[in-house]
């Protein structure tokens, strides 16, 4: 019989020698004689002990997993003289950590019978830790507009957990900014890192994508008109405002069809505002210059006296041109009811986008998305108590 256990158990009679060897090679010996009367004839309470194992820390190395559990003596057992062996009334186990990285655990199993006798056996478990800490409460990446308030975004409570020691680990946060393709776009990358007792380092990331996908709002009070050759007006000055770019410039272009003052021609004027990220809004004006003959007929008529009327509502469509959808913003000067009608260039009804109450000084935003009508140009008509504002919507999907 040979054993290297801390508390060996013997079942056969004989002389047993305990040898203790020091690190310098010196030995100490002690002999013990065990006879049958000392052992009794009852079998040991612990019949077999689990063997030593080496496991990864993610494995279940408890007695109920790969660690294994002992085999204990059954309850109703008699000795050689027909006497009942004492019943086992308590069993259990406890662990002692002998070293770290790898973790070496001495697991001691014990059994106690009703006479108070104690038996033990031990098992060595070597736990290899190659697993980095894991992180909890890491949110999904977030996308917000460049004019959003980052202070309103709650900071998550991220923490790290070490699978081997079953303990919470400290997590360190670093935030880096990565600029995007334009001035108003960037990423804020939050990186948490944690290192366990064995030097395994894990990281987790959460990114806030800051984007600019909103076109500037173009302020351009123009309308299509029909004029004589000498009455073509000068281009108006238009302005623009963007939610993120403070330096939006409005570009003006003008195209003329073939023709002259005798036959007439068409002028197409376009004002375009583009922000730093390439989002664009445009306003178009079509001026039909009529020929001299038709214009002379106008001149023979009584002159038309017009009175400048303060507009009841202001209307801005943005983005325009647009891909998927555009937003028609209405700002009323007084309380009342307004309607927004969308037609095609032939005047055919497309949509009643809005019909409801408006309040003075409070903007109403009406969404228009030509789902079933494809690319093309549409006319919007905003009416309020006899006053009407018209404009063009250019859909370029």
Q: For the record, what CATH class of the largest domain applies?
A: Mainly Beta
The CATH H-level homologous superfamily of the largest domain: Immunoglobulins
The rough form would be described as rod-shaped
Order of strands, main sheet, comes to 4-8-7-6
Give the strand content.
Answer: over 45%
The CATH architecture category of the largest domain equals Sandwich
Helix content: under 10%
Question: Mind describing the biggest β-sheet?
Answer: 4 strands, mixed
CATH fold name of the largest domain, please?
Answer: Immunoglobulin-like
Q: Could you say how many structural domains there are in total?
A: 4
CA-based gyration radius: 44 Å
Instruction: Quickly give the structural class.
Output: mainly beta
Number of helices: 2
User: What number is the mean pLDDT?
Assistant: 86
Which regions have little confidence, pLDDT < 50, spanning 5+ residues?
299-309
- How do the helices and strands follow one another from N- to C-terminus? EEHEEEEEEEEEEEEEEEEEEEHEEEEEEE
């Amino acid at each position: 019989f040979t054993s290297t256990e801390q508390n060996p158990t013997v079942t056969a009679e004989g002389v047993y020698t305990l040898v203790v060897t020091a690190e310098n090679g010196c030995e100490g010996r002690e002999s013990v004689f065990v006879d049958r009367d000392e052992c009794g004839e009852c079998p040991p309470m612990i019949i077999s002990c689990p063997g030593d194992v080496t496991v990864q820390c993610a494995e279940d190395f408890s007695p109920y997993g790969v660690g294994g559990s002992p085999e204990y003596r059954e309850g109703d057992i008699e000795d050689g003289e027909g006497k009942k062996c004492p019943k086992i009334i308590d069993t259990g186990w406890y662990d002692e950590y002998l070293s770290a990285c790898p973790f070496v655990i001495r697991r001691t199993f014990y059994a106690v019978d009703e006479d108070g006798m104690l038996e033990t056996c031990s098992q060595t478990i070597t736990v290899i830790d190659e697993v980095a800490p894991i992180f909890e409460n890491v949110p999904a990446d977030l996308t917000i507009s460049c004019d959003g308030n980052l202070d309103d975004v709650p900071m998550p409570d991220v923490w790290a957990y070490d699978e081997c020691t079953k303990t919470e680990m400290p997590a360190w946060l670093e935030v880096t900014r990565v600029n995007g393709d334009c001035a108003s776009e960037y990423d804020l990358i939050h990186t948490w890192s944690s290192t366990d007792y064995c030097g395994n380092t894990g990281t987790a990331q959460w990114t806030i994508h800051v984007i600019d996908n909103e076109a500037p709002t173009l302020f351009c009070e123009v309308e299509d008109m029909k004029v004589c050759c000498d009455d073509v007006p000068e281009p108006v000055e238009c302005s623009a405002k963007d939610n993120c770019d403070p330096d939006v410039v409005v570009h003006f272009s003008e195209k003329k069809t073939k023709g002259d003052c005798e036959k007439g021609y068409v002028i197409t004027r376009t004002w375009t505002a583009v922000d730093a990220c390439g989002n664009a809004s445009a306003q178009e004006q079509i001026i039909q210059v009529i020929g001299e003959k038709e214009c002379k007929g106008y001149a023979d008529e009584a002159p038309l006296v017009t009175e400048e009327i303060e507009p009841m509502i202001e209307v801005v469509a943005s983005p325009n041109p647009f891909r998927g959808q555009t937003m028609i913003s209405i700002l009323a000067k007084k309380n009342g009811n307004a309607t927004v009608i969308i037609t095609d260039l032939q005047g055919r009804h497309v949509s009643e986008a809005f019909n409801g109450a408006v309040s003075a000084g409070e903007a109403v935003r009406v969404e228009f998305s030509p789902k079933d009508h494809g690319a093309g140009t549409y006319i919007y008509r905003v009416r309020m108590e006899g006053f009407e504002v018209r404009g063009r919507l250019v859909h370029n999907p």
